[in-house]
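User: Here's a structure from my thesis project, written as structure tokens. My advisor, Dr. K., wants to see whether a designed sequence matches the one we expressed. Can you design one independently, without my sequence as a hint?
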């Protein structure tokens, strides 16, 4: 990094010339010598200017820490500036917090603790460094930003029960099917037929129901099955709880936002279904080519985790006509703040096609503080349309789950218990 004279160097030369001129007028050779020494000292700094002061910045992210519910990411900042006496640093944390530091000496080693308020991909820290030579007579310009980024995984909420379709279509799994088979609960007592296993003969039922010699009755059970789960995330809007900030859609604002809620809900549901050995797929509405196809297992869990954690807001350029393709008989989970009519239409279409559909409302509980009278009226209209969309999809047979409502965790747990109701057998 090339060094250049600072204003202090020009001031030093000017002061030296003034001293020499004053000494010549006064006839004071000893005073003139002081001016000469000052000019020579400034000129000597030109050697530093010729060779420059190479500056390097290294950022290392340390293991994540927890401060209550808040995640804190420590970042080690190592700076080396050859020949520098002072190293000014400009630190930008989370793309918004700006701090200025000045390190003494040619090297600096500091640790910056950056609070992480949101899940997903984000820039933790950006550092810009300069350098100043001895007595600040030479300085360098600031170099390019050196950044360190991280992807914070959304939290996983453990659920005691998960919604399942009324008729699972898989061949084996953890959910009870309606067809007879092995592994499930008691189904009925049935006369022995070719293909039944002898160990299934219920001798008490045979003694009670048999009418003639040779009559045998077997105890039949339900089969177990897995299910296909299609997670679809609406990434059009990313709004927070404060309605006054909706127009900004600034991801650096503090507080849970709709995409934070969506990532948490998607990862929690995906983990619950994968724990039950179900087949899970994931896609976002604005980028259909980024779909994670259906699958299960540890590797598939990592692919889902990475895709869900890196989901970010992208505006849809065109109105989406076709609904994303999902496997036949799949449980469709649509995660959205439902600020758009098209998203509600998709949920209705999937339900009309015979899919069991779960609409997860990811809109944080809205706060209307700080609004003008006109803005408050507009906010009530928007929120009223949001409630109307949820009522409409519920009326079409879609289950609705409010993930981050005003009732908090208790409201969500109660809604899940209502969804995980016993299936009617037929």
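Assistant: Designed independently from the structure alone:
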């Amino acid at each position: 990094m090339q060094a250049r004279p600072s204003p202090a160097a020009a001031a030093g030369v000017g002061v030296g010339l003034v001293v020499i001129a004053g000494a010549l007028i006064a006839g004071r050779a000893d005073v003139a010598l002081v001016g000469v020494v000052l000019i020579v000292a400034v000129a000597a700094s030109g050697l530093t200017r010729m060779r420059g002061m190479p500056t390097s910045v290294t950022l290392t992210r340390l293991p994540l820490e927890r401060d209550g519910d808040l995640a804190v990411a420590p970042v080690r900042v190592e700076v080396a500036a050859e020949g520098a006496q002072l190293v000014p640093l400009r630190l930008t944390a989370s793309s918004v917090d700006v701090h200025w530091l000045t390190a003494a000496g040619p090297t600096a080693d500091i640790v910056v603790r950056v609070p992480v308020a949101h899940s997903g991909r984000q820039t933790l820290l950006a550092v810009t460094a300069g350098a100043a030579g001895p007595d600040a007579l030479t300085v360098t310009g600031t170099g390019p930003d050196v950044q360190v980024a991280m992807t914070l995984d959304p939290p996983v909420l453990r659920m005691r029960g998960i919604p399942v379709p009324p008729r699972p279509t898989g061949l084996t799994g953890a959910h009870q099917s309606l067809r007879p088979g092995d592994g499930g609960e008691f189904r009925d007592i049935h006369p022995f037929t070719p293909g039944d296993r002898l160990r299934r003969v219920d001798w008490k039922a045979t003694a009670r129901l048999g009418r003639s010699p040779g009559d045998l009755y077997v105890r039949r059970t339900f089969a177990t099955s897995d299910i296909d789960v299609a997670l679809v995330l609406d990434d059009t809007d990313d709004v927070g709880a404060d309605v006054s900030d909706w127009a900004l859609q600034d991801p650096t604002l503090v507080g849970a936002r709709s995409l934070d809620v969506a990532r948490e809900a998607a990862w929690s549901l995906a983990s619950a279904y994968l724990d039950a050995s179900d087949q899970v797929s994931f896609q976002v509405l604005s980028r259909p080519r980024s779909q994670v196809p259906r699958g299960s297992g540890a590797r598939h869990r990592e692919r889902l985790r990475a895709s869900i954690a890196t989901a970010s807001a992208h505006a849809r350029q065109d109105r989406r006509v076709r609904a994303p393709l999902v496997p036949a008989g799949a449980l469709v989970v649509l995660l959205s703040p439902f600020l758009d009519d098209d998203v509600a239409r998709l949920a209705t279409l999937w339900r009309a096609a015979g899919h069991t559909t779960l609409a997860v409302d990811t809109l944080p509980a809205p706060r209307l503080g700080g609004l003008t009278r006109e803005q408050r009226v507009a906010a009530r209209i928007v929120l009223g349309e949001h409630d109307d969309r949820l009522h409409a999809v519920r009326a079409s047979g879609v289950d609705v789950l409010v993930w981050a409502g005003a009732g908090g965790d208790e409201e969500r747990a109660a809604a899940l218990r209502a969804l995980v109701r016993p299936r009617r057998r037929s």
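When you compare it with your expressed construct, this may help: The chain has a mean pLDDT of 80.
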